[in-house]
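Quick check before the chapter quiz. The format below is the same one you will see on the exam, so make sure you can read both the input and the output lines.
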Amino acid sequence: MLDRLPSDPGSFEDLLKGLGLKASDTVRIARALDVSESTVWRWKRAGAPKIARLAAWWLSCAGHAGWNAEMHNRTNLALQMSDSLWCEGKALRRRLDEPKRQSTSLRAYGPPANEPSANYRTQS
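Here is the expected output.
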């Protein structure tokens, strides 16, 4: 996710407008960013540091879209990995069962009664 951060998240004012916040919402912004209200007023006048703009960007539609895309991709990858492991396990189970089906030496009491070779006693 660090690779996907924007190099310039935009101006603090634009980000706040994009969040639907008004100039009177400085108390809410200050509480959310854990700064004083005077700091928020200063940032609005002189520009906010990049870390504050990134925090606002994560709350914006662009930040949410980036997060949703990342989670979608990770979910798809996990599902594909699960399917792949399931198929591999199924193939390994088939390979393990193959010798049991082909070999009569693994059977403790000879071939099953419904197998044609089981009729050897009646042919004498």
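If your answer matched, good. The radius of gyration is 33 Å.
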